[in-house]
Amino acid sequence: MSSSLWETLRRPEALYGDRPAYVDGTSRATYRELANRCRHLAGALQASGVGAGDRVAVLMTNGHRYLECYFAIPGMGAVMVPLNNRLALPELRYILEDAGVHTLIADETYAGTAGQLADSVKQVIVGAAAYEEALAGATAAVLPVGVSDNDVAGLFYTGGTTGASKGVMLSHRNLLSNAMHATIALEYTAAEVYLHTAPMFHLADGASTYSVTWVGGCHTFLPSFDAGATIEVIARERVTATLMVPAMLTAICEHPSAATADFSSMRMVLHGAAPISTSLLKRSIEVMGCSFSQGYGMTEVAPLATVLDHEELLVDSPRLRSAGREIVGVQATVRREDGSFCAVDEVGEVVLRGPNVMLGYWNKPAETAEVLRDGWYWSRDLGYLDSEGFLFLVDRAKDMIISGGENVYSIEVEDALCKHPAVLEVAVIGVPDDKWGERVHAAVVLRADTSVTETELNAHCHELIAGYKCPRSMEFVPELPRSGAGKVLKREIRDRYWGSSDRGIN
Amino acid sequence: MSSSLWETLRRPEALYGDRPAYVDGTSRATYRELANRCRHLAGALQASGVGAGDRVAVLMTNGHRYLECYFAIPGMGAVMVPLNNRLALPELRYILEDAGVHTLIADETYAGTAGQLADSVKQVIVGAAAYEEALAGATAAVLPVGVSDNDVAGLFYTGGTTGASKGVMLSHRNLLSNAMHATIALEYTAAEVYLHTAPMFHLADGASTYSVTWVGGCHTFLPSFDAGATIEVIARERVTATLMVPAMLTAICEHPSAATADFSSMRMVLHGAAPISTSLLKRSIEVMGCSFSQGYGMTEVAPLATVLDHEELLVDSPRLRSAGREIVGVQATVRREDGSFCAVDEVGEVVLRGPNVMLGYWNKPAETAEVLRDGWYWSRDLGYLDSEGFLFLVDRAKDMIISGGENVYSIEVEDALCKHPAVLEVAVIGVPDDKWGERVHAAVVLRADTSVTETELNAHCHELIAGYKCPRSMEFVPELPRSGAGKVLKREIRDRYWGSSDRGIN
Question: Would you say residue B298 has pLDDT above 90?
Fold first, then answer.
């Protein structure tokens, strides 16, 4: 039995052909039209030499063309590689070369970047005009073309503890499974109008893309997040569901028109497992007047693992600080180092299983073997389960900072800082931030007889890594706290900012 | 990655351990208690010599012990064989021997039958006392025990065009997939209180067993259907969902206490794809005041393929006569004999695909190859799809009658009748019946110089086949209508009862 991700578009085309599939500003399409556009995109890619298994990267802001890539590329048996559009040029180049990308599809916004990257790929399709020309000139492809469950559908790059970004290989079955799990957990139906305002290159948003389509809901978009525009599009398109990170919710709550805005169509806001304060959550519930659900997961599980739903009913419960419970289809356990299961309330590593668990990291068998054992994914996140299966996260073993919804791996920032000649050593941590949830903070030890300013170090970082990864604050210290074995004790630095309690990740 | 059906019980035990799993008269259990009972049943079976892959048959009326079998048997890696308790002794014996059943579990109601069947199996566990003794004496098994996705979880026997009953092999993945599809299509949640009043040996009811458990809902039971008891238990246990066949709905609507009954807890009645008249449906909606959904499927797809939901909104639509649309996870197509897809409104064979499609028929590779081609299941049902994917059934190619919710294959009844020395030939058809939807009707040609009464022929049939398969009416005719090629033209006989239009299967 073979099932392709194309199935998630085939069904609404057959059942809801005349219903709206998307509204993107003044562009709209029914499901029949969307499926036809996707078949033409697939046809154009095939005609240009893209074959089954070839990688096709996407560098775009949110919009219907991004949506089309989500179906056409895996639908034709190729592998989609969504690119984080906030990455620096060397980071993007690394991914294109690591993945061996055949074709890069970019929009006008990234025309300059795409031009600079052209020599790393076989072809580029840049801008809406070129995209539309390709579709118009193509014969509609016959889909699906011999795709099987365990074929790779997408390579989703994620930072890593080793510094190098890793391509998470997700199969058709992985993404179809998550789509089904998410549909149950988030109660998506054909009545959904889903707003893509969080970046579509993130699987946090991408996961709902397949779910909402499969059940026959409608998509709408903002090129990127803007509070005023979000408030306006929710009212105009009668949006029912969307994904937000805390920084977005803050911006909406603080927007002058929030008090008079029409949020009456909203059914549910899904927000990521980034730190969110109870006060922000309460205020958001008050302002938007709908249901709030928190999702926890990671790219490696395609991505949803647990959901805390109906937080509006939990505002006075200590469980509001939990990441919720395993969703139908996913097993969430907490383990000791020897693999045994932790007792209730005992902290251990979060270990996940389900048909949504990734195939592995692209060309990285050693890193894959480290996290995938007997079909279980060892997340490196630390947490505990209470007596009714609510998961509480207490730390991220992989030393990750979530700032404004983006994952930042300390090691990447530390590597960049250390490349500056004046820097002897650094420790990068996340510290609480009202706007970003966490912000990237660096404790820097300079070499003897050197000097450098924070501004100079920041400019240095911006050349090497994405802006959101660069430290938003720094402290210069004579030495880093270390354990007897010489290991840097980041917790000691963190405690000055967070207090000695749990980091309050949720 | 391996997932066992045990997963559907592990989750509610972990998340909802203290919530009610079932209420069965005066017996009740929380999810923790249910899971413990199942582990003990599995332990008892293991101790008695049942190993992975061994078949364990169940011959019981509805109740919590039936529910326990649904989890303990596949959970320990054995294969569950639910027996239709309306079958005649020779039919039951055939199944036990065909499946090579190791252990037969029966309740008091079938103690006599079980005794007569004891020599066809290695052991029998008969009656509640023996069952409870086995549990009390057993060590709890550690589950799951090395079960993989594609292992057979159950053998579900179904009649066939060849006369011999066939064991449909459903894997853990098949049943887990259906459970997930059904959860989406029927919108099961943790708030569900599901009443098992339709027979639990049928997968039509059994399918909801896994769904309702997985999401953490509660089960309640009637040993077998009774209108008054159903009305009473719905009010007492605040039942939200149940499966009914038309004959049950008729009995409820006609019951003296229906008008004053409390159906306020009911969310949805699911009814099978047996013929139901629009007037009965309208009356049932009026009486019960809840949502009605029709399901279409068959054991071979574990079993749900299409659903017509919210029929209460369709009472004046011609689509009320459709079997609904493919559910998320299942592809429903209509094909020509050469495998090509029919056009909109063109009649062809209903062909289905999904992770829920059976592994095949037990020990019947030829019959399996006939219906499973490239992962698609050819159902033998005839129908067409309208422009929005609504499936309309027009005939059953496999010559099946659905009487009171039971499938009756004409060939089985014809074989039984023909064993009587006075019978030359027969044609068995379904004719419309107010109570049963369809009733089994026989057109009989006697041998020259013989005579037999309808009563005598009926008594003859009852010795060989289940009572519900025996003709409820007969006509004696001098000859059967035949085509030029000599094929019996059953349609000509049917048309006298149904008119020349579609048979009105829905």
Answer: yes
Selection from B368, B433, B426, B372 nearest residue B399 by Cα = B426
For chain B, the domains span 7-382, 400-498
What b/e sequence results for A95-123 when a residue is b if at least 16 CB atoms lie within 10 Å of its CB, and e otherwise? bbebbbbbbbbbbebbeebbeebeebbee
- Work out how many CB contacts closer than 8 A connect A with B: 66
**A-chain residue closest to B182, CA distance:** A184
Distance of alpha carbon A247 from alpha carbon A260, whole angstroms: 21
Identify which of B1, B214, B375 has the shortest CB distance to residue A1: B375
Structure-token match 């090629």, residue found: B485
Pairing mode, if any, of strands B423-433 and B406-409?
unpaired
Please provide the distance, in angstroms rounded to a whole number, between the alpha carbons at the two ends of chain B: 40
User: How do residues B400-431 score in pLDDT, each as one tens digit?
Assistant: 788 888 888 887 888 889 889 999 888 899 88
Tens of pLDDT, residues A150-164? 999 999 998 755 557
Q: Cα B103 vs. chain centroid, distance in angstroms?
A: 22
| Chain A residues near residue B10 by CB distance under 8 angstroms | 331
Contact assessment for residue B354 and residue B177, using Cβ atoms and an 8 Å cutoff: yes
Strand A376-385 relative to strand A348-353: parallel, antiparallel, unpaired?
antiparallel
What sign results for the dihedral spanned by CA atoms A351, A352, A358, A359? positive
Do residue A1 and residue B357 have CB atoms under 8 angstroms apart? Answer: yes
pLDDT level of residue B274 (50, 70, 90 thresholds):
low
CATH number among 3.40.50.360, 3.75.10.20, 3.40.50.12780, 3.30.1330.10, domain A7-382: 3.40.50.12780
Alpha carbon of A283: minimum distance to chain B alpha carbons (Å): 28
Average pLDDT over chain A, rounded to an integer: 91
Same fold, A7-382 and A400-498: no
The reported pLDDT for the residue numbered B245 is 86
More confident residue, A246 or B215: B215
Say what the pLDDT of residue B437 is.
82
A136's tokens: 């118009």
Query: ipTM of this model?
Result: 0.82
Torsion sign, CA atoms A358, A360, A363, A368: positive
Q: What is the CA radius of gyration of chain B?
A: 22
Question: Tokens for B303?
Answer: 């079993």
CA distance A1 to chain B (A): 5
Q: What are the pLDDT digits (tens) for A110-124? A: 999 999 999 999 999
| C-alpha distance from residue A136 to each of A37, A128, B370, B392 (Å) | 9, 12, 43, 37
Q: Give burial (CB, 10 Å; 0-12/13-18/19+) of B366.
A: exposed
**Distance, in angstroms, between B189 CA and closest chain A CA?**
9
pLDDT band at B395 (very low <50, low <70, confident <90, very high): low
Nearest by CB to A184, from B183, B354, B387: name it: B183
Q: What class does CATH assign to B400-498? A: alpha beta
Among the partner-chain residues B1, B325, B389, the one whose CB lies closest to the CB of A357 is: B1
Positive or negative torsion for Cα B473, B477, B483, B486: positive
